Amino acid sequence: MKGLFKMHKGEKGFTLVELLVVFTLLAVLAAIMIPNVASFLNYGHTQAEDTELSIVQTAMDAMMAVADLSLVNEVTVATNNMAAFPGGGHVLYPDYLRFATTHCTYTCTTGGDVAQVSDW
Fold it and tell me: How far apart (Å, rounded) are the C-alpha atoms in residues 114 and 60?
């Protein structure tokens, strides 16, 4: 162990300039990558919101078709509680959705058109 860190004849370590060049390159790469990763995450949230809205609208359409409804209760106060949405004896959970709550909140018209109010 005694000679483990000892410099041998003809060997050199890194100079300060070489280390600064490497750290500068790493900083430039990080500056390029961080915004790309952030935009990728935002894109994922946008896609998830769009998918959830589509799922809730499809569940509403299925519920209205199965129950032979042309109108449902209008929901003007946004909610993520699908066990009470849209109400009036007809709800989306548990028969038409897998989960009782959603990430976003929703309203709907009497015609069954669902609108997403809040995002992720």
Answer: 8
pTM greater than the 0.70 cutoff = no
Closest CA relative to residue 64, chosen from 34, 42, 95 = 95
DSSP code for 79: E
3-state secondary structure of 100: coil
The DSSP bridge partners found for residue 91 are 86
Q: What span, in angstroms and rounded, lies between the C-alpha atoms of 106 and 74?
A: 11
Query: Residue 86 has which token pair?
Result: 């849209």
Query: Alpha-carbon distance 115 to 60, whole Å?
Result: 11
Instruction: Count the Cβ atoms, other than its own, within 10 Å of residue 112.
Output: 18
Angle formed at CA 86 by CA 119 and CA 93, multiple of 5 degrees: 80
pLDDT digits (tens, 9 = 90+) for 55-94: 999 999 999 999 999 999 999 999 999 999 999 899 999 9
